Amino acid sequence: MFPIYDENPTEDTPYITYALIGLNIAIFLHEISLSTSILVLDGRAIEGFFQLYAVIPRQLSAEFFGEAFYQSVPEWLTLFSSQFLHGSWWHLISNMVFLWVFGNNIEDRLGKIKYLVFYLSCGALAALCQYIINIDSAIPSLGASGAIAGVLGAYLIRFPQAKVSTLIIFGFIFNVRLPAFVPIGFFFVQNVVAGVYSLQAAANMTGETGGVAYWAHIGGFVFGIILAPLLGIFSRKY
Fold it and tell me: Which of 25, 81, 98, 139 is the most buried (most CB within 10 A)?
């Protein structure tokens, strides 16, 4: 399931959502420019960039436990900066489509400042959820998925019956109008199943591997459901 259009209108122009999308795209274009740059730090320029701005669990653990870790960006700050990094075009596009479809109504309900606080908070808490899974990992964790999962959680409790045009790929592609709880519920269940499987797979492996941060998605979604009412998502009406 891939949402392409939310049929629930908003009152105001979602400037914060547009700005977040624009910033994510701009930073990804910068990443592309680095991929052909000269060698820096311990590897390619892009790897050095991720070392600075993505969440590296091992480095975050060192900072939490008071160990000296000398780099220009405090490791706790990567809980926020990592939200604007992406590993591929598909990673970026899929995240931005979800943000485009669902973010506008959450921004409208929370107001622009609260929405920005909500988005960044969900992203940081989601990153911490993924961090807890393996606090000694040296693999960078990055992407807007955790923050956007928070937006989906908020949308689920505020607009469960809103109609969303959704592409379904099942042998062939077709477009259907579904209540929001169907694609969002599918997203959550899919991540829970994959997250549990990832834990089982990791327990049977001797080395570290990268992959989708399922527990960041799960954590962001749950915190979105928790934080949205506290910030007043039910207080504003059309």
Answer: 98
